[in-house]
Specification:
The protein is mainly α and 189 residues long. It has two domains: 82 residues, Arc Repressor Mutant, subunit A (Orthogonal Bundle), CATH 1.10.10.10; 92 residues. 67% of the residues lie in helices and 8% in strands. The radius of gyration is 25 Å and the shape is elongated. The N and C termini lie far apart (56 Å). 14% of the residues are buried. It holds the Pfam family PadR.
Length: 189
């Protein structure tokens, strides 16, 4: 997610202080990972430097000055271009999970146990997201659906990989102990 573009788009509704932007971001997008104030202010500083926002007012208070930011025409154009660009699909061709499966096989550990543990963790998270989805508003339902669909795809991959473990081990030259013992018995070696 582009924090800068998100903050810019939130400013289209009207000028806001940094803490208002943080609150709006957290309410709409930060349920699981709220923004840090420092991230908001460093982003606003960069957007200001790039001419995408301007300071609409400064208020003095008991603490530091409070700047109110407004989006510029250049900022509106930038958000429009960003929204019009499709996101690059993430193919996950070299996932950590795949790496762990191969390394388990290469080091003589149980890749099947690793896949079983991962399957249990995916199912646990899916239960949590399903509960959240049923309690949440439409925005929560949509974000939970997105995550659930990805987890379902991962589960399909876990099942397929489990079914192909022996073949993968053979291609890597590291048959699991039970398969190695069976082959030694068959060949007499």
């Amino acid at each position: 997610m582009s924090i800068g573009h998100t903050l810019l788009a939130l400013l289209e509704a009207g000028p806001r202080h940094g803490y208002d932007l943080k609150r709006a971001f957290d309410e709409k997008f930060g349920h699981d990972r709220p923004l840090h104030y420092g991230q908001v202010y460093s982003t606003m500083s960069r957007l200001l430097k790039n001419g995408l926002v301007e300071v609409d007012g400064i208020e003095a208070g008991g603490g530091p000055e409070r700047k109110r930011y407004a989006i510029t025409e250049a900022g509106i154009t930038d958000v429009s271009h960003w929204l019009a660009q499709p996101e690059r699909p993430e193919p996950y061709l070299q996932s950590t999970l795949y790496t762990k499966v191969v390394l388990a096989l290469l080091t003589g550990r149980s890749a099947a146990e690793l896949l079983d543990l991962q399957r249990a963790e995916h199912l646990r998270l899916m239960r949590i997201l399903t509960q959240r989805k049923h309690r949440g508003d439409l925005a929560d339902q949509l974000i939970c659906d997105h995550a659930l669909f990805h987890l379902e795809a991962d589960l399909r991959w876990l099942e397929l990989t489990s079914a192909r473990l022996e073949r993968l081990a053979a291609e890597l030259g590291t048959l699991p102990d039970s398969s190695r013992a069976a082959r030694e018995k068959e060949t007499g070696i």
